[in-house]
Amino acid sequence: MKFPQLNLLIKNLAFTALLLAAIVTLYQLAARHPAQWDMTQNASNSLADNSVNVLKQLQGEIKLTMYVTGQDANLGDMHRLTRDFIALYQRYKPDISLTFIDPVKQPEEARKVNIRVNGEMLVEYGGKREHLTMLNEQALTSVLLRMAHTKNQLLMYLDGHGERNLEGIANHDLGEFGKRLQQNGFRLNSLNLTLAQDVPNNASMLIITQPQIDLLQGEIDKLLRYIANGGNLLWLVDAEPLRGLERLTEKLDIILTPGIVVDPAAEEMNIPSTWALGAGYPPHAITQNFNLTTVFPFARAIDWEENAAWQHTTLVEAAPRGWVSRDTPQGKSHFNKIRDIPGPVTIALALQRNINDREQRIVIVGSGSFLANAYSGNGGNLDLGVNMTNWLGNEEKLITTQPRTVKDGAITLSKINLTIISSSFLIALPTLLMLAGAMLWWRRRN
């Protein structure tokens, strides 16, 4: 009798040892190779791809100091809420430190760094320091993106001829685009070439939009000198007279086809056919991982003369079933075989060449309205504009994938549906459970 008991004891001990070994092994694997899956509809428990990409660009410690009292009347435990949110970032970058300071108990500490409101966060990285008063992913990632810019780049935009203003609030201005660029770390400054001797040497790029009056010949000479010296350029050109910029097209060997791009696909989406839809993006650093639809109102087609000095790359191709119309369409658009030019057409073009031991980069877009305040919120317009600017500023590493679209999680039910669901859970289901229990009781009794 002893041997069977001994064998059973040995088996139990061996099983226990193997089980413990398996648990330890699984723990070691989980610690070394952590994995997780966010099953929520809006992925609310993980970061968007663009936030993760920004974190990859930041080498070294990020210090976060949260100046907040422990409890909030509406939100509850602010320390726990902040820790849970920052943990999403620490998951991808462990060297993010988080410190709490109570501005009520330690007012001197808050005063030293000019803290103004309860719940304000101080972000420190690489000698840079910024304040954050709203704690969410978009706000924090924007701050980190600005800090990821290793250069404090100056961006100039041509002014003095009725051009679109990068700091303006009118519908035709580019104020929203300018705000996004400033959030990403660029400095903006207007440039009037009637006053300036030349485009400043410290400008990383120049933006030209549609002038409303003719440029003077001396101004054109300064622009051409800037191009000849290897300056980077973003040119947003509308389907209007060039007002003296014809010499710039000759310098760049490009052809701006007269007329407006007509896109039947836009008409099918219940928007004007004169709004060309950008959905095809040939491979380029600007369009890498870019899959958002863009809208180019009143666009003009761009072509070019072959020139061995320049490398040309189409950035956006539009209207595969459309055409370039010399006449502004009235009502439903129709293709005129005699006057119109069939699509597809290029409406955004990148040029690059090596000059003066550096690479010169130019982007031409056949629609200034593409980034205007009235239209920039359509699709991925602003995101594509920022990608263009980052490329022109030699900041390819900051061209990130776009934020995910948050799905609407709300469910709308009619009164009939609500009645059916309420009746099912409050009446039918309890009744069925009671009947099932009664049947079981009856069967056991008999």
UniProtKB/TrEMBL annotation:
Domain of life according to the entry: Bacteria
Protein name: ABC-type uncharacterized transport system involved in gliding motility, auxiliary component
Residues in coiled coil: none
Entry keyword set: Membrane, Transmembrane, Transmembrane helix
Keyword Transmembrane applies: yes
Domain named DUF7088: residues: 44-115
Keyword Transmembrane on entry: yes
Domain ABC-type uncharacterised transport system: 157-388
Pfam families the record matches: ABC_transp_aux, DUF7088
Transmembrane segments: 420-442
